[in-house]
Design brief:
This protein is of the alpha+beta class. About 25% of the residues lie in helices and about 35% in strands. The chain has 5 helices and 16 strands.
């Protein structure tokens, strides 16, 4: 009985101490870190404003390679949402939403982390002599008794994670090509509806060329079997693209409706409003054109409204000069 009284007294003392200490500790955490990135603000902003690109550089987005991610809302900017679920205790599950987006200056987000409530974070971009000074921050409200151990430890964890994420963003941005745009023109037009046969592929970026070649061969066999004729340049629709995974749909336009069979998909690419750019050069350099088109759309107040596709007009087996390879790039817009 005496032991129980002593144990109860100890617990009471601990609660009193915890209460007193919590009164004097801050009720919230503000953590922030900054880093200079040697790239223009536009290029850095574009990477942060598109939540799908975070897989290429964000520490949190790469804690668990098997993380299940779903993206909702617009492709970028206000209303863009990333929902994830992971078996990793660190990643857990949550929702990140962009609530404010000022081009080349600021992005504000809300984070609903499962079991932690809602917090506010963001990114601040300021011009510097040799690039852009990038600050990322987060504000978290703490429960009363969460101010002692969780609060003190969590702030240190946030700072460490911010440092890793900023380093990843810096490396990614500084390895992006700087777009050479003097000869580029963008055309707004209505795309022609197309009947296509396609195959859905998931691969590494380094495997794109091989996968395209193999897919076109398989689609060609299906066309012969179904009595279909090619009606335009081969193409590929790109659903997602990250440093370690590409989801794409190699396709060949055909003269009439085909039939889906096995991994062959028969469908129509409907007529939509698009912006189009003719890119001449090696396929490995097309990323700079995609960056240019995305920035152009934002400046013109256009919203990207679907997955882009590329038409490969020039046959590289016939034309060996890469400067003459024509790739037509299309983005659905609103």
């Amino acid at each position: 009985m005496k032991a129980l009284k002593i144990a109860g007294l100890i617990i009471l003392i601990i609660l009193i101490l915890a209460t007193v200490v919590s009164i004097f500790l801050p009720a919230s955490i503000h953590a922030e870190r900054s880093l200079l990135i040697n790239r223009p603000a536009e290029q850095v902003f574009n990477q942060v404003n598109h939540l799908k690109t975070w897989k290429k550089w964000s520490y949190w987005d790469n804690i668990d390679p098997k993380m299940q991610s779903n993206y909702e809302g617009p492709e970028a900017g206000v209303g863009a949402i990333h929902k994830w679920r992971s078996t990793d205790d660190m990643a857990s599950a949550g929702t990140l939403t962009i609530t404010e987006s000022i081009p080349n200056e600021k992005i504000v987000t809300t984070l609903n982390f499962e079991g932690m409530g809602i917090s506010t974070g963001g990114w601040l971009l300021t011009a510097a002599d040799s690039g852009t000074n990038v600050t990322t921050y987060m504000d978290i409200e703490l429960p009363f008794f969460g101010r002692i151990f969780p609060g003190l430890v969590f702030e240190k964890m946030l700072i460490d994670d911010f440092d890793k994420t900023l380093k990843g963003l810096k490396t990614h941005c500084e390895n992006l090509p700087i777009a050479e745009t003097k000869d580029w023109e963008i055309t707004i037009m209505e795309s022609n509806p197309m009947q296509i046969l396609s195959i859905k592929i998931t691969c590494k970026p380094s495997e794109i060329g091989m996968q395209l070649g193999e897919s076109y061969g398989k689609i060609g066999e299906a066309m012969m079997k179904q009595g279909l004729k090619q009606s335009g340049p081969v193409l590929a629709v790109y659903e997602s693209y990250s440093a370690d995974k590409v989801v794409m749909e190699p396709a060949i336009p055909v003269d009439k409706s085909g039939k889906s069979e096995g991994n062959i998909i028969a469908r129509e690419l409907p007529s939509v409003q698009v912006m189009k750019l003719d890119f001449y050069g090696d396929y490995i350099d097309t990323e700079k054109a995609h960056i240019f088109m995305d920035e152009w759309a934002r400046k013109q107040g256009k919203t990207i409204a679907g997955n882009p596709w590329e038409e490969y007009v020039t046959d590289p087996m016939v034309e060996k000069d890469t400067t003459k390879w024509l790739t037509r790039i299309y983005y659905p817009i609103q």
